[in-house]
Amino acid sequence: MIVSSNPRDHDPISDVLTRLQHDAVLDYYGRRLATCSSDKTIKIFEIEGENHKLTETLRGHEGAAHPKYGNILASSSYDGKVFIWREQNAQWAKVADFNLHHASVNIVSWSPHESGCLLACASSDGQVSVLEFNEGNWLHVIFLAHGQGVNAVSWAPAMVPGSLVSSKPDLAAQRRFATGGSDCLVKIWDWNREDNTYTSTTSLEGHTDWVRDVAWAPTILQKSYVASASQDKTVRIWTSDPAHPNEWKSTVLTFEAALWRVSWSLSGNVLAVSGGDNKVSLWKENLKGVWGCVKWIEE
Question: Residue 18 class from Cβ within 10 Å (0-12 exposed, 13-18 middle, 19+ buried)?
Answer without folding.
Answer: exposed
